[in-house]
Amino acid sequence: MTTDTNDRWWLATLGRTVVWARLRVREAGTAEVLDSDGNTLPYDSEDSARAALMDAEFVEYDGMDEDDAQARGFTMAELDPPQADDDERLAPLMVRKLATRH
């Protein structure tokens, strides 16, 4: 599996369901977002991609801390961005239902 250093993981939550999105910044300064449906959405800049993610109520994973996670109803230990050998295998992992807490 290759990891692009220009990849940034974003997430949105609905209850105990986590929806992931991957923001990838290209060398030319353009950006693309791999969404939870496996679609790659192109943007003219990182800023426009980030704005679209924020408009859709996503937050950047790298900027989260334990308090942020708890405010959304989970812990940081429950969150790991999905990993796969390629985008085709990654797509089904982009939505994850977390175990119910007791």
Structural class: alpha+beta
Rough outline? globular
Counting structural domains, the number is 1
Number of strands: 6
Low-confidence stretches: none
Fraction in helix:
10-25%
Distance between the termini: 35 Å
Total helix count?
3
Overall pLDDT level: 91
Report the β-strand fraction as a percent range: 25-35%
Radius of gyration, rounded?
Answer: 14 Å
Query: Could you spell the SSE succession in H and E letters?
Result: EEEEHEHHE
Major sheet attributes: 6 strands, antiparallel
Describe the 3D structure:
- This protein is α+β, with helices and mostly antiparallel strands.
- It has one domain (7-86).
- It is built from three helices and six strands.
- The protein has helices at residues 46-55, 66-71, 87-90, and strands spanning 7-14, 17-25, 31-34, 40-43, 59-60, 95-97.
- Strands 1, 2, 3, 4, 5 and 6 form a six-stranded antiparallel β-sheet that branches.
- A hairpin with a 2-residue loop joins strand 1 and strand 2.
- The longest helix is centred in the middle third of the chain and has 10 residues, at 46-55.
- The termini are far apart.
Q: Briefly, what is this?
A:
This protein is of the alpha+beta class and 102 residues long. It contains 3 helices and 6 strands.
Please describe the topology of this protein.
Elements: E1 7-14, E2 17-25, E3 31-34, E4 40-43, H1 46-55, E5 59-60, H2 66-71, H3 87-90, E6 95-97
Antiparallel strand pairs: 1-2, 1-5, 2-3, 2-6, 3-4
